[in-house]
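Troubleshooting entry. The earlier prediction with zinc ion gave an output that would not parse, so I re-checked the input for stray whitespace and re-submitted. Clean input:
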Amino acid sequence: MKGMTAIQCKNRKTFAGSVTKYIDAEWKLQEAYYKAQGCKVVEVDSVAWGGCECEHCESLEHKFEELIEEIKG
Ligand SMILES: [Zn+2]
């Protein structure tokens, strides 16, 4: 059984994940954001923490954090 939902980039690396049963509004927003940037949402057993090493993803992740801060702030 796959218990994690994760974001997978174009290079097939997963770089953000959430336990599927704890999916919340912030995660849903994150999914929509990354899908719009060409990433996929996948179901996995576990996520390789440490982030994606490709530059594209690093900047995406950074931008999402800024977006969330703006919404919360
Ligand atoms: Zn990547």
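This one parsed fine. Residues 9, 11, 13, 52, 54, 56-57 surround zinc ion (CB under 6 Å).
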